[in-house]
Amino acid sequence: MSEEDASLRETVLALQKEVRALRAKATAAEAHLAICNLQAAYGYYVDKGLWDEAADMFAPDGTLEIAGRGVYIGQDRVRQYLHALPPYERGTIFNHMQLQPVIHIDPDGQTAKGRWRAFILIAWLGGEARWGEAVYENAYQLIDGVWRISKLHAFITFYCEYDRGPNHGGVPMVRKIDGLQPDQPSTHDYEAFPEIFIPPFHYANPVSGRSW
Amino acid sequence: MSEEDASLRETVLALQKEVRALRAKATAAEAHLAICNLQAAYGYYVDKGLWDEAADMFAPDGTLEIAGRGVYIGQDRVRQYLHALPPYERGTIFNHMQLQPVIHIDPDGQTAKGRWRAFILIAWLGGEARWGEAVYENAYQLIDGVWRISKLHAFITFYCEYDRGPNHGGVPMVRKIDGLQPDQPSTHDYEAFPEIFIPPFHYANPVSGRSW
Amino acid sequence: MSEEDASLRETVLALQKEVRALRAKATAAEAHLAICNLQAAYGYYVDKGLWDEAADMFAPDGTLEIAGRGVYIGQDRVRQYLHALPPYERGTIFNHMQLQPVIHIDPDGQTAKGRWRAFILIAWLGGEARWGEAVYENAYQLIDGVWRISKLHAFITFYCEYDRGPNHGGVPMVRKIDGLQPDQPSTHDYEAFPEIFIPPFHYANPVSGRSW
C-alpha cells in the first residue's frame, strides 16, 4: 500500500468515527424535537376533549398518573381514564398549556424523560373557573420509529378559584375519578397549595451534577 | 483494483449515503429551531406594537388572518392590518405569549407548518383588561436562506374580562378592523367561547397517523 | 495515481468538508436545546426557592440583574441575592414560567444569547397575589463542555394585583433587596407598567436584518 493510500484510509476511518458521533448528536436533537411536538400535540387534544387522540399517543403499556388518583396502566386503561374527564361542550374551557420542557434522551436513543409544566385554565359558564398548574415528570419510548408517551405523571401544584385568587386559598386535589379504580395506588403522597411539595426531578442539576 | 481498494471504495460510498441522511436530519432540526426563534421573535414585536418589525417577517406574498376578520394578502396588506391595531403607549399591556409549538418541516426543507398557542393578556389602564387565547395554524417559507411567515392564521378560542372571569361569559370576537377591508373573506366560520370550535390541525396524530 | 484513485480522493475531501459543515449545524442545535433545558430547569428551581441549585447554574463570573436592583457579579454574589428572596414555605406560590425562547449561538459555539419571558404568578395565602412578567436578555457560556448562565438580566414589564387586574394599575418595581448592595448600578433606567419600556433585543430582525 502506498503512503498516499494509507493516508486516505486513515482519513476515511477518521470520517467514519466523526460521522458516528454526528449521528448520535443529530438523532438526539431529532428525538428532543419530536418529543416536544408529541407533548405539545397531546396538550391540544386534551384542551378539546379529544380523548381517543390523546390515548393513542401512549405506548401499549404506557401509564398515567394525575394528582393523587393512582396509576392507570396500559393504553386501554389510560383511554378509560381520559374518557371519564369532562366533555368539551358549549360553555367549557379546559386549556392545558404545555410549557417549559426539560428533555433528556437516554444514551441508547430509545427512551427519554421530560419535565413539563401544564398551566391550566378551566371554566364552566355559569359555574366555576380555575387557574391551576401541574408539573409533569414524563417518560417516552421510541416504538417502530415513533415516539410515544410511556409515562405521564402530573403532580398538581395548585388550583385556585378564578374569582378569589390563590391568596384566598387553594382548591384541594381531587383524589378520585368517579366510577374508576386505579390499577395501582399513587406513587407519591402529597397535597397541593397551600401545602408545600416539590415534584421530584428526573435529572441532576445540569451544571453541578448534583441531585437535589 | 485490489480487494483493499474495493473495500475502501465501499466504505466511502456508505459514508456518502450516511452523510446525506445526516444532512437532512441536521437541516430539519436547524429549520425547526429557526422557526421557533422566528415565531417567538414575532410575539415580542407584537407585544410592543412594533408593527413594521412584525410585518417584515412575512414573505412578500404572505397572508394574515385573525379571528373572523378575513384574509389579508401580501406583506403590504399585512403591514396595513398590523398598523391598524392599538398602539403601545402608556397604560397598555398587549402581551401575546407564543407557546406550545408543533412544527413540521416539509420533506423538501423549503416550507413548514406550525401550530402554536398565543396566550394573551391585554389591558388599558382605567379601561378593560382581558385574558384570551388564539390557536395559530401557520405556514413558513425559506426564502434566500431565511425562514419567513408565509401564513399566519389565528383562531381566537376565547376572550374574557379580567374583572369577571370566563365562568361569567366570553367576549364575542371582533370581526372587523375599522377602516379596513380584507382581500378575501374568512376561511372558517366560527365563534369563540362560550361556543365550541376545534381549530383544524395541519398534522395527523403523530402516533396513530390518523387525521382527526 | 489512477483516475479511480483520484476520484475517490476527491470524494473523500468533499465528504470531509460536508462533515465539517454538519458538525457546526449539529453542535449549534445541541447547544440551542441544552440552553433551553438549562433555562427551563433554572425556572423550576426558582419556583421552589431552591436557591443553591439556581446559583450553581451560573458561570463563576456570571452576573444577575433583576428589575432596577443593580448588578450582582460572580456566582457567590448571585447566590447571596437569591437567598435574600422569599423562602418557599406553606402558603406560597412563586411560579416563574420560562417561556418563548429566542436563542442565538455565537459562531464559535462557546457563547450564546437568549431572550425569554418569565410569566409570573406569586401569592401568599392571606396576603397578596400578583401576576407579572419579566423579559430576560440572558447570555450563556460553555465551560468544560457544560452550558452555564453567564448573564441573567430580567426586565420587569408589569406586576399587578391578582385581586384588581392591570386595568386598575400596576405595582411599582421593587428597586432594592433588603440588606444587600449591588456591585454595580442598574444598566437601564426604566419603570414597569403603566409606564412604557421596550427591553432591548440582543438580535436584529431575523428577516430584515435591521436592528430595532
UniProtKB/TrEMBL annotation, chains A, B, C:
EC numbers, comma separated: 4.2.1.106
Gene (name only): baiE
Enzyme class: lyase
MF terms in GO: bile-acid 7alpha-dehydratase activity
Keywords assigned by UniProt, alphabetized: Lyase
Pfam families in UniProt: SnoaL_4
Organism: Croceibacterium atlanticum
Listed name of the protein: Bile acid 7-alpha dehydratase
InterPro entries: NTF2-like_dom_sf (IPR032710), SnoaL-like (IPR037401)
Taxonomic classification: Bacteria, Pseudomonadati, Pseudomonadota, Alphaproteobacteria, Sphingomonadales
